[in-house]
Specification:
Helix content: under 10%
Structural class: mainly beta
Distance between the termini: 33 Å
Oligomer: single chain
Length: about 350
Amino acid sequence: MIKIRFFYFTILIASLIPITTSRAADEGAHAAEFLSHGVGARALGMGSAFVAIADDATATYWNPAGLTKVKKHSFSAMYSDTFSTGDGNWLSRGLVAYNFLNYVYQIEDIGSLGLSWIRLGVDDIPRTTFIDINNNGVLGDYHDINNNGIKDDGELYIDKPEVAEYFSNTDNALLISYARQVHAMVSVGGNLKLLNQSIFEYGGNGFGIDIGLIVEPYKGLRVGAMLLDATGTQIRWNTPDTPTFTRTRRLRFGTAYHFAVPRLGRGAIGVDFETDQADLEENSDGGGIISRVGAEYWLFDTVALRGGWNGHGLSAGAGLRVNVNTMSFLINYAFNTHTLGGSQRISVSGEF
């Protein structure tokens, strides 16, 4: 009886929050946007249509309610070469380093616990200054030939420029996840997100909450929903007179169908929709909804092929499963198109 009441209470809260929380961001609609990039080459290869599938360790990101479907011990790690520099190398280092690492543990009669770390960074950014060649205490002197006080073309610097140091622009998120099956057909879950952002000498911190739900009314059919940043995730910076940035609430929902082909393999098809708060605020023609679709097929439960549309471009991927006794290890690859250049994602995961 307690579980049934908790189930209905969860559905009531999840249905009321999107209606009563339409407040816009204090400053812009893209605070902590690195949280929207997605994790895991498997899900990304499927066009990020994963809210109803979410049956591996990356469920901590896509829908924590799905953690009830993973084995007792599960982990996932991802490396991403994002926005490649185009120097001709297949796995060339991208402009942005984006990585993910997590671990999930099932506790009998208590639920599933997960701990995840997401990092996005632009490293080795040079900070350039000048050497005071003429020792006048002023940096950046130049030959002002026409004495107009403005550096014109052809007027050379007197002071010598040099790289004083290198710094990084980093975004970090720590996700503490919990999930529990409250009914034979229903699982619920949530995340507590701790955020840190920094650039040069400045930084900001914040926290937020996600709420997830998965319902499986029939075998093979799953419906998922997730309210991201349910409380409005705020980032407070340590600089004076800097406003607090708020990551606005978004609702992600979708459905998935799992099927099997006797003696050949199995597959899944997923369709997701996500509200785009920035689109809604700007009253653009996009309608405020991002649509995603994806599919995967496992041949003999060993090799996987994936493809999809992530709402902005095509995605594709592949996977390989290796079983060692009671342990399973998966190597996944995904490629996503983007206007700034293609992004390659490689992830390794395991469960036992």
